[in-house]
């Protein structure tokens, strides 16, 4: 039942399915700091508007009825509410109740509408939605109902388009389409580009049917890197700038078909980072978009998870569930060389069921924040702790807050200003309330919310200087909330 962000069971996770199993071993006490009392100014986070009307039929388990899919377009934030009956509503807001209005409502149907904001296109929003006439296709809106229309029926008919890896290039965007061709069916991979008009939405490159497009990709400041593989040629790195002329092969990475595991960039966004899982070993790579600058930095003889880079190093932790003590390691970006930095605290290290795994990670300023779960013999962890590091043992510490231990709801993380992080944790009278930390006990606290307490905050997304999210409040539903990106709750 470990379904990431499957939070629609609401408080069931806290009351039944979410806690440690009966008879769990009491942990060793390590002198952890007490939780801080709420100390934000009143209205640290505020409800923007009630967007799900009271009386709306309660969703079935795992339906996820909440504002989500936040995307910014020139000062306006778009988001969607997808209902369990298949209906979808596209909204826009500038952060106030009066500016939060419906753009267009799509009626209930099955298969569900699945409306998803994808990217800004100049002063318009590119999104995808399912309709009976065209299937799942790209649409565009200028923020008005009259200006909301089908962009192009990329795959004519009702079949719809499998569209992935949307990347923005000024006032244009590129995306990949995969479709079945030939008999027996083969998957063809195509790169498309759009300027927001039907005539300007066209195929740029047909990459053929011989290779499979990997799900993961890397977007740097100058290029979109993608991975292709097939049994004959192995696994290769490609790059594109969204045009035919700027799409080309970079380097063969492996003679076999190996999975891409984690992706990221250096802090300045100029260099791409990724890991490959070759057998039981994890390879750490970097790329500047050239063959010579695409280098395998290091290999670990076990599964590792990349957290991200800080300065001249990239940081990783154990990704195998078994080890009770998770090791934080670093690899030099200058040319390899791995270092074990420290092991993370686990008071249940002698329990064979107390394996550890990362639930979430975010880089904020010169810090990496990551949540680590300590397992049990059941599906739910016994503890989930938030850690912060600046790359040394001395700067690696645990934040004094208890994150959700439900197996149906994982606490989300998002970077705030000045090296901080916003997340959810247990509150004074709330389950999974919003918290903020700037990396120390003294700067970690629950965020005050107005006009009511919140539960199960989801879908944190930063647009401009605001962080938007959905949260269950006194209406009994997840509504639209926001907070300033520099929210601070120092006691």
Count of distinct strands: 37
Ends distance:
38 Å
Assembly context of the chains: single chain
What composes the largest sheet?
5 strands, mixed
Alpha-carbon Rg, integer = 23 Å
The number of helical runs is: 1
Q: Report the principal-axis shape.
A: globular
Q: Provide the low-confidence segments as ranges.
A: 1-43
Helix content: under 10%
**Mean pLDDT score, rounded?**
89
| Strand-residue proportion | over 45%
Structural class: mainly beta
Question: What spatial order of strands do you see in the largest sheet?
Answer: 34-1-37-36-35
Describe the structure in brief.
By secondary structure, the protein is an all-beta fold. The chain is built from one helix and 37 strands. Helices cover 1% and strands 49% of the residues.
């Amino acid at each position: 039942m470990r379904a990431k962000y499957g939070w629609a069971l609401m408080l069931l996770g806290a009351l039944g399915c979410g806690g440690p199993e009966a008879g769990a071993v009491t942990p060793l006490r390590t002198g952890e700091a007490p939780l801080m009392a709420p100390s934000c100014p009143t209205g640290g986070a505020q409800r923007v508007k009630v967007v799900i009307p009271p009386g709306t039929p309660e969703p079935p388990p795992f339906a996820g009825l909440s504002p989500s899919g936040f995307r910014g377009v020139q000062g306006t934030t778009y988001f969607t509410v997808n209902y369990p009956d298949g209906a979808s509503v596209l909204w826009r807001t500038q952060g106030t109740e009066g500016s939060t209005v419906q753009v267009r409502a799509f009626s209930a149907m099955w298969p569900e509408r699945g409306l998803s904001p994808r990217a800004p296109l100049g002063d318009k929003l590119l999104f995808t939605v399912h309709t009976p006439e065209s299937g799942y296709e790209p649409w565009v809106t200028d923020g008005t109902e009259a200006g909301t229309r089908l962009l192009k029926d990329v795959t004519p008919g009702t079949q719809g388009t499998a569209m992935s890896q949307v990347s923005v290039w000024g006032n244009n965007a590129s995306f990949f389409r995969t479709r079945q061709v030939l008999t027996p069916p083969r998957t063809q991979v195509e790169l498309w580009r759009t300027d927001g008009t039907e005539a300007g939405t066209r195929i740029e490159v047909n990459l053929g049917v011989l290779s499979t497009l990997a799900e993961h990709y890397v977007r740097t400041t100058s290029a979109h890197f993608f991975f292709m593989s097939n049994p004959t040629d192995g696994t290769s790195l490609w790059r594109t700038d969204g045009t035919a002329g700027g799409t080309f092969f970079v380097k063969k990475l492996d003679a076999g078909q190996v999975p891409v595991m984690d992706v990221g960039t250096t802090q300045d966004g100029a260099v791409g980072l990724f890991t490959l899982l070759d057998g039981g070993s994890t390879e750490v790579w970097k790329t500047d978009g050239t063959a010579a600058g695409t280098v395998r930095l290091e290999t670990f003889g076990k599964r590792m998870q990349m957290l991200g880079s800080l300065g001249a190093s990239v940081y990783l932790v154990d990704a195998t569930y078994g080890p009770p003590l998770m090791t934080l390691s670093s690899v030099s970006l200058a040319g390899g060389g791995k270092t074990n930095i420290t092991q993370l605290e686990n008071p249940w290290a002698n329990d064979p069921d107390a394996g550890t795994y990362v639930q979430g990670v975010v880089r904020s300023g010169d810090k990496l924040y990551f949540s680590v779960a300590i397992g049990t013999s059941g599906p739910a962890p016994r503890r989930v702790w938030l850690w912060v590091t600046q790359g040394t043992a001395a700067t690696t510490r645990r934040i004094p807050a208890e994150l959700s231990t439900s197996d149906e709801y994982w606490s989300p993380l998002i970077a705030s200003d000045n090296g901080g992080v916003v997340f959810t944790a247990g509150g004074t009278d709330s389950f999974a309330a919003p918290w903020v930390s700037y990396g120390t006990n003294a700067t970690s606290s629950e965020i005050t919310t107005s006009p009511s307490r919140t539960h199960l905050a989801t879908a944190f997304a930063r647009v401009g200087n605001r962080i938007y999210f959905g949260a269950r409040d006194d209406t009994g539903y997840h509504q639209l909330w926001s907070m300033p990106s520099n929210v601070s709750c120092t006691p």
